[in-house]
Specification:
alpha/beta; 14 strands; Rossmann fold; eight-stranded mixed sheet
């Protein structure tokens, strides 16, 4: 069974949950899109919800109702879909509730606070037949799409290297996290390399550390080597306290393949050189909506066509598993297999699940990899 599609041609009626800093960025994009209509805002803090509504009005989005309880707002405004822009630990309860209220969900990354919760959400999507898509907004970048096209012309890939060096002074929760870089930022390149290669990771060895001058409490730097299918390696080197000569927020990329090398500095268009030294030229892709706008546009398309979008929950969970595996490897000093992370997460998900139907769906999976590899359209009952 395919995920449920919309039965009307008008704008998709969106109810947004979460109106903080990231929520406001989403509100601006929702108001700017002709494909959607914002019909309400939910936030546990009434003042935050009202501030979001004021932003919408100032941006020309009219007056929208606000509330603190998702189910109440669903009954009041009758949305077509829910946009979950809450903090990570709220992703699981908010998305689960929305799915079982019969609503598809577009959620901010990460899919959930843990891989186990992500698996629970994948099973919930299967039980309900509703679409749950995670916004990995960095995938919606014309230059990354161009890099993927260049890479495809270079033959067998040996190694992809990624360097990330920034020095942001955020303040707040990131400054006190155990692994601010790995948990809050590294998922972007980890997910992007999966899109670039069209392959999934097998294992990782990671070392995380904190330079002496770091203003973070936890490890703000890390180096990791991932083994991917077909023996491809992904080498990640990142730091969030690397002042001077900083990279783009997209990082610096190098793809080494049998037929040559492709380069991308994260900002300008990528380039490639064949093994004989001649330039490799591939026409850039047709420009598409970028970042948040791109996620929103693909979500709408998926709701209208039934097509499985990038970031569909089954596809997306592995990106979070890369993060958990890297953190585990850094803690133990040993390589970690992604399948081991997924297997333990399934055991935890089954033990912690509060809904009988979701628990039985999880137990019915032949294996985590098989369940995640099958599009939701093929496994939903």
């Amino acid at each position: 069974m395919r995920h449920r599609t919309l039965d009307h041609d008008g704008p998709v009626r969106i109810l947004q949950v979460g109106a903080g800093g990231m929520g406001q960025a989403w509100l601006r994009n929702v108001v700017a899109s002709a494909d959607v209509e914002l019909v309400g805002i939910v936030d546990l803090v009434p003042e935050t919800a009202r501030a979001g509504a004021e932003l919408v009005a100032a941006a020309g989005g009219g007056t929208v109702p606000t509330g603190a309880v998702l189910a109440d707002m669903v009954r009041e405004v009758r949305p077509d879909a829910v946009l979950d822009v809450t903090i990570p630990r709220a992703h699981h309860p908010v998305t689960t509730e929305a799915l079982f209220l019969g609503l598809p969900v577009l959620g901010e990354k990460p899919v959930a606070a843990s891989v186990a919760e992500g698996l629970s959400l994948a099973a919930a999507a299967e039980c309900t037949g509703e679409l749950f898509m995670v916004s990995q907004s960095r995938r919606y970048n014309d230059h990354l799409t161009h890099l993927r096209a260049l890479t495809a012309e270079l033959g067998d890939v040996g190694v992809v290297t990624h360097t990330f060096a920034k020095a942001p002074h955020f303040g707040g929760f990131r400054d006190v996290m155990d692994h601010p870089l790995l948990l809050d930022m590294a998922i972007h390149p980890f997910d992007a390399v999966r899109a670039l290669l069209g392959r999934d990771p097998v294992s990782v060895y990671c070392e995380a550390f904190n330079p002496s001058w770091s203003w973070y409490r936890g490890d703000a730097a890390a180096s990791a080597v991932f083994s991917f299918e077909d023996g491809v390696r992904f080498v990640y080197s990142g730091s969030w306290c690397a002042a001077g000569a900083e990279t783009s927020w997209n990082g610096d990329w190098r793809v080494s393949a049998a037929g040559g090398t492709a380069l991308w500095d994260g900002d300008a268009a990528p380039s490639a050189e064949r093994a004989d030294g001649s330039p490799l030229v591939v026409d850039p892709p047709t420009s598409t909506p970028a970042e948040i706008a791109g996620s929103l546009a693909e979500f709408v398309t998926a709701l209208r066509t039934g097509r499985r979008p990038q970031g569909e929950v089954h596809e997306n969970v592995v990106s979070l598993a890369m993060v958990e595996a890297a953190v585990e490897s850094a803690a133990t000093g040993l390589p970690v297999r992604i399948d081991d992370v997924l297997g333990r997460a399934l055991t935890t998900a089954i033990a912690d699940e509060q809904r009988d139907d979701v628990r039985e769906r999880l137990r019915s999976w032949p294996s985590v990899r098989e369940a995640l590899a099958a599009p939701a359209a093929e496994v939903a009952s």
